[in-house]
Amino acid sequence: MTTAVGYDGPFYLGVDGGGSKCRVIIVTEDNQVIGEGLSGPANPLRGMKVATDSILAATQQALTCAGMAFKDMSRLIAGAGLAGVNMPEYYRIFSEWQHPFAQLHLTSDLHVACIGAHQGADGAVIIAGTGSCGLADVKGQLIEVGGHGFPYGDNGSGAWLGLQMVHHVLLAKDLLGPQTLLTDLLCDELKLSQTLALVDFFMHASPTTYAKYAPLVFTAADSGDALAQRIVQQAAAHISAIAQRLLSINPPRLSLIGGLAHKLQPYLAAEVQQKVTPALATPEFGAVWFAKQRQQQAQRIS
To answer: Helix or strand or coil: residue 281?
Structure first.
């Protein structure tokens, strides 16, 4: 990785802000990465201060990595793809943020994921992480599916899987549902055994917390637990349904990204698995591309 030493700019900041983590990169005009950073959730639905603090913390890491100072934030042309800003109210709130950057170009995490996955060309992308959503962009036709938030949306996501696990573990402990390996796995992970202790732990849990324990469902499924296998299959069926909806406009490429992508892909419908291709670049690079595009558009107008 190169550094900022001897380079006068411009500098671009690419931000991928999801429900569990925020990743950023700082790049030069020719897309050389000079700094990277990682911090906590950057979804404004979880609180504006939480989101902005995460962005600033990750950016500070990237600046340090690049050999730059905190004051150099004012030199960064930022593109930010954030979960939650597909909701008009949160887009408005975030647009009013008195940010420290030279410029801030704002869009959804799904949008920058699609841009990065296909390097700005037509295609489709599905995010399977803390939440779940999909987008296809083909010859100017745009289809966006999901992204409605937890718990009334985000089926098939990490948050949904975690919630399903807790639901069925509580039923099993009350002898109202089938016994499952999930009970032992979750209780061992939390070092809790009493039903009410589990209820207390998850009483005010965020989607990030539920998603944190989603891998236990795959562990149980891989061990042959029938209930866990059924939950995973339900999750995969929903992600497959998103894919089929996106494929209806014949995108030339389809990529599956997010923390659970590699775990869910083997469970997807066969015809969907055959269509999945690796992302060409990360969402952070998609955010940089978006910022450059918006900057060029503004320059043409002026």
So the answer is: coil
